Amino acid sequence: MTLSVGTPPTSPGALARARGFPRIRYMGSKYRLLPHLEQVFDDLGGTTAVDAFSGSGVVSYLLKAQGFQVTTNDFLNFPTVIARASVANSVEMLDPETIDQICGPPADDRDFIQSTFDGLYFTHEDRQFLDSAWSHIDRLSGYKQDLAIAALVLSAARKQPRGVFTFTDSTRYADGRRDLQLPLREHFRERAAAYNSTVFDNGLQNTARRGDVFDVPDTSPDIVYLDPPYAPPRDDNDYIKRYHFLEGLSVYWRGVTIMEDTKTKKLEKRFTPFAYKKTIEDALVRTFEHFKDADSIVLSYSSNAIPDAPRILDLLRTVKSSVDIRSIEHKYHFGTHSAATRREASEHLFIGRNA
Ligand SMILES: C[S@@+](CC[C@H](N)C(=O)[O-])C[C@H]1O[C@@H](n2cnc3c(N)ncnc32)[C@H](O)[C@@H]1O
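# S-adenosylmethionine complex -> structure
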């Protein structure tokens, strides 16, 4: 195992831009690793990159800022909408009139959110706003609609204590923070401005797709970045359990099924083989195989995950003859309990190439 210390990043503009990306509390997000990732991508070079598990979208956005032609992928919808709005989109913005309209009186009398989540999440006024906002968003299309949905999703994420929807008693974590007090309508104005400011053109055609990692069609980019969910020794890493409200909100609960017998009104779980000790190894092998023709495979992996680093090294070596590891101290946000929120771990970056 080699621990390499690289040279300072050579494109500080890209890092500064990525640091300004609107922050969503997302399990396993790599905001803190941006300087390290920037350096690794810079060292590897090339022109095309795939971010196969895009999540919050911040790494895809960094790659775009570094001048790569980026393809993002995630099997959930709201990460895909965020990536479409901020990575694939290079020109469209939400104009002030559209923002005013979304924040103004409703365009119809829909009340799905008000009635379905009454007493569970947010105030009555906030839920009314979410229905009303969607009555306008439904009349938008393309990247403007993506920007508006991304801003609405981020508003709901910021207003929900801890950003997760695993509990319904919001007074439990009420700590007076501005984000928890600001009406969702005001949040929306701020978040829309934040996503507007992510929009820039890197001169290339970037793509955001939604789907399973094994169906990503661009299998031979210069760099593929893999940041799959980890199979933790304890706890779970179910994204839908935590973010079902954001996933539902991103499609106005159309085409998804609420599990009516659950207290939180969560959506059906999305199976992923990366979440389980029994299936993770095979899933990693198949992912490496899928991207074996990429010039470089960069894999983020936590030191407290299963399998361990030596095993990952063996697996990655089946498709790449040279593998380096960089280790970075990192703090994770896990679970909803204070004891479980910050767990120290090292983040390993495996960098596989053909020698
Ligand atoms: C650790 S997170 C990625 C975090 C991201 N790099 C960031 O900085 O925010 C893992 C992501 O993988 C997605 N995912 C899980 N299983 C997947 C699969 N089989 N195919 C595609 N995406 C998957 C999850 O929805 C989640 O967004």
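# post-check
Confidence is low (pLDDT under 50) at residues 1-9.
The pocket of S-adenosylmethionine is lined by residues 26, 28-30, 53, 55-56, 58-59, 74-76, 79, 212-213, 227-229, 239, 272, 274 (CB under 6 Å).
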